[in-house]
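User: I'm new to structure prediction. If I give you an amino acid sequence, what do you actually give back? Let's try with this one:
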Amino acid sequence: GITFKLNVWQSTRHDEELAMLKFRRMLKQLRSFHGQGTSMISLLIPGKGCLSRTLKMLGEEFGTA
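Assistant: Good question. You get back a string of structure tokens that encode the predicted 3D arrangement of the chain. For your 65 residues, that looks like this:
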């Protein structure tokens, strides 16, 4: 009935708000990190990205650092 649909909507909304809260906390923590020169990197791997290729690329970068 309508009560079930409302509860599902509220649950979904709560899950989204919780996910945003966790994301903001993580972003705040990441902003607090500091490095010298290239001692710290950010790496974004697409969901359909090839992990082995990314690891190879990181290994090559590490070798030149």
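You can read the tokens as a compact description of the fold. Here is one thing that stands out. The chain has a mean pLDDT of 77.
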